[in-house]
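Q: Second attempt. The first request was missing the SMILES, so the protein and pyridoxal-5'-phosphate are both included now.
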Amino acid sequence: MTERSLNNTQLTIIDNIKIARENISDALASVGADGKSVSLMAVTKTVDPMRINTAIDECGIDLIGENKVGEFLDKKPFLHLDGVKTHLIGHLQTNKIKKILPEVEMIESVDSQNLLLKINEYSGKIDRQAQILIEINIGREESKTGVLPEELNDIIGLASELDHVKVLGLMAVPPICEKESEIRAYFAQMYKLFVDITVKKKDNINMDILSMGMSSDYVYAVKEGANLVRLGSALFGDRRY
Ligand SMILES: *Cc1c(COP(=O)(O)O)cnc(C)c1O
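A: Got both inputs this time. The predicted holo structure:
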């Protein structure tokens, strides 16, 4: 497609993605981590397939995240997913494991031992090894899912004994903070957990991915060690539900 045939919505998305990539590089440079690679996930909840395809086709976005199983499966047939990975990033109810597991590369939101066991059971049945991240409730918020930091060792221990799941890292959605120092402290706590598990070197556990940072705070997340950021509104504009 040539620039001329793109509409304003598409041009805005292209611009937004360019800016996000620059901000990520600048954040890395500011902490002396220039060479490090950070994956940019486009979070596509409430975003229609035309806009998602713009991000993929025009900007080379190769990772998308969806929160809801039903919404993702409805949109999937219309998406240009060749060479694009898809992750589930929202809470997964156990009765939807069957539907989603064959359809995504990774489940980032594994937030309980029960869900972990059920994913293992089903991926065993379809002879797969599910790639997962463990979601941490780093702000200890009642309203959020995720394991508490002190529960992490137990769920990692359990996962290391299961044949049909592979833990590839950690994910978090920290509380909304007013101050830079507050949000950075949560990201720093996540990075510490990530390093703690890495040095333990358990079977079946590879700490490759630290998924944290959203539209309002991804620059700080990158400065604190995130290597996957999940951006929705910064790329596609405000969500209309
Ligand atoms: C919606 C969502 C995002 C993206 O949020 P923005 O603030 O729009 O960037 C990232 N991660 C999760 C888990 C989400 O639900």
